[in-house]
Amino acid sequence: xxxxxxxxxxxxxxxxxxxxxxxLAAARERFAADGYERATIRAIAKDARIDPSMVMRYFGSKDxxxxxxxxxxxxxxxxxxxxxxxxxxxxxxxFLGLWEENEELTAMLRVGVTNPAxxxxxxxxxxNQFLPVARRICPDPxxxxxxxxxxxxxxxxLALTRFVLRLEPAVALAREEVVAWLAPTVQRYLTAPxx
Length: 195
Description:
The protein is mostly helical. It folds into two domains: about 15-70, Arc Repressor Mutant, subunit A; about 80-190, Orthogonal Bundle (Tetracycline Repressor, domain 2). It has ten helices and no strands. α2 crosses α3 and α6 packs across α7 (about 115-135). The termini are far apart.
């Protein structure tokens, strides 16, 4: 593999793409399992079966690696196309699906509760991805940030208990039970009259 004059592998070459993908996969698993503070470049490199210097060569730092490994797009549904009374259910189903299939979200949650940079990243996702969706459905623009934050308390609380802490009663709930319990609360937060 030839390197560029800057010492960084040329993007787009099959070997550099495969190495980058291996590092990112190992980092996602390690951040999800250990959190940001305990995950080390050396452990991630070992998991990816490469020299630790390669991690630094591709990503520059642990922060750079974390940012690349947990680039999250929530792919939120277009709530303007849904009947107003079904938005809560649609969002709970959507978030459950995301948490069930995406280790990056688990990594982000673990890191977000222990590391300021991780918390800032989660705040950015809330501000840039979820808040605009809430603005489309909430009846009072001034209360939208508070309403969206209340929805986040439910979704993040569910994720923490079910996917990170793995509290047995939360894990044991069938998907439809979770939807049945949480959807009315999320719906109320988004559309009910202000108390």
